[in-house]
Amino acid sequence: MALDTYREKRDFAQSPEPDGSSRRRSPAGRTPRAFCVQKHLASHLHYDLRLEHNGVLLSWAVPKGPTLDPATKRLAMQVEDHPIEYGDFEGVIPSGYGAGIVMLWDRGTWTPEVDDVDAALTKGDLKFTLDGYKLKGSWVLVRTRGWGSSRGDDGRSWLLIKHKDEWSGALDIAEFAPLSVKSEGDFADILAQDNPDIWKSTRPAQGGDTGALFQSIVARALALKQTAPREAEPPPKTRSARPSARKATTAPIRKPRASRAGATARPKPRA
Question: Taking 80 as the threshold, does the pLDDT of residue 164 lie above it?
Fold first, then answer.
């Protein structure tokens, strides 16, 4: 079954993640389909891109996160399929596989730019359009050549690349819009909401290796909160307006418009 690997890796008596037992399914061929990006602070910070297809969320772990610069290719490691309801998940995984804090960093819909998604996945070249709060426009996932079972990854290694279009540019979207589109908070906010008592002691809730790992995650969440800028300033020649970092996570990024006085919008950046 599509979700067997997902379930085998998790203890749902300990993890708040959805177990995928609901009967929610995506109609075959429906378009557009849901997508999300979850920012996951575990042993290492990374981003998880998930695309709805055939009743599951196809998933790739992107260590450095998406970029709007077409010249920059991001490694994307394909992981196990996730249940559809995972697309709304945000919270704290206290122990076990994926222990850490999960933020719903972006969500929206995606539309394939190919006639047959399964054939594109088999070929290793999936082109698609995103319409999220932060990520928009044309993208491609390309399986890397020279990688496969002989290199030990069974073809899981892909590249996530932004195509050059009106939504591409030099803006560091992960830094510009770092917060949740669901709660508007950062990792520390999500952790405190899940367990308000976490700040009453510097000791982790559990001992041993799990406690030590979670203590380091708590420390990292606090450090990220303390060093985050109050307002992210886009570089020159970007096409987006300049909302605050907190607002940037909840309001879709839109194209600038001419002013009422007839001033033209700023030119698009050259990728």
Answer: yes
